[in-house]
Structures are given as structure tokens and as C-alpha cells.
Amino acid sequence: MEVTSIVNGIIIDHVPAGTSLKVLEYLKIDPSKTKLALIMNTTSKRFGSKDIIKIEDDKDIDLDVLGFVARQATVDVVRGGHIVEKKQPHLPEHIVGVIKCVNPRCVTTSEHDIKQMFHLVHSDRLEYRCDYCDEEAKL
């Protein structure tokens, strides 16, 4: 199998094996409308196996969201066929519009114009709580 290099775009590397489709969903990237390559369950020296997402063209990737769904991932920015920048996502303190509150009494379930907002409570357990009702997010 041959996957060619990209000229301009990004490479999201070290995505946990088998999770690249979920990562695309969280990043709000539609695979049917985006020129991309998914390499799934490939060998990784660091993790044993991994996924790689290559996205052609300029896409703004929300590193906060990426830090939430694939903290160990790395992002390489490619221009003119060469990697010009490497980025490392970090676990975000706040997440807006990514996950939904499961509390049926939360104002965000009845008022659809309110953005779902969560704050990090405990980084080791990846625990986030709703900014409105303090319900723990179910990830």
C-alpha cells in the first residue's frame, strides 16, 4: 500500500490505534468533503500501533479538541512538501461545543442556543464537569 506525501496541509500522527474516525468527528472534519488519508493500525515504535491522519489543504485544527481526544498525538504542518512546524496538543482547561451534558435538568438540554461548556476538574482522570450544572461529562 502506498500513501503519497502531501504538499500543503497537516499530518496528525500518533493517534491512538482505531480512533481516527472518532478524532475526525470531534474535530468536525467531514471525510466526504475533505481530501484526506487515514492510515489505521500501523506500527508505532512508541505505542505499538497507531493511526495517522493526513489532511491536504489548509484546515484549522482546534488543538484544544485534539488535546481532549488524542492527547499523545502530534501535528505536523506541511508547506511545499516539507514539515515547517510541529505542534503538540495539550489537555484543555475548557471545552466548548464538543461534548454534551447528560443531565436532563441542565439548562443546555432545554435551551438549544446555549453552548455546551465544560471545565477540567481532574487531569489524571480526564474529568470534566458542565459549567452550568456541574454534572460530570461521560466520555
TrEMBL record:
One CC-aspect GO term: aspartate carbamoyltransferase complex
Claim: Phosphoprotein is one of the keywords in the record: no
Superkingdom in the source lineage: Bacteria
GO BP term (any one): pyrimidine nucleotide biosynthetic process
Coiled-coil ranges from the UniProt annotation: none
Residues in Aspartate carbamoyltransferase regulatory subunit N-terminal domain copies: 1-89
Pfam families, A to Z: PyrI, PyrI_C
Domain Aspartate carbamoyltransferase regulatory subunit C-terminal: 95-136
InterPro entries assigned to the protein according to its UniProt record, in alphabetical order: Asp_carbamoyltransf_reg_N, Asp_carbamoylTrfase_reg, Asp_carbamoyltrfase_reg_C, Asp_carbatrfase_reg_C_sf, Asp_carbatrfase_reg_N_sf
Keywords of the record: Metal-binding, Pyrimidine biosynthesis, Transferase, Zinc
GO molecular function, one term: transferase activity
PANTHER family: ASPARTATE CARBAMOYLTRANSFERASE REGULATORY CHAIN
Protein name listed in UniProt: Aspartate carbamoyltransferase regulatory subunit
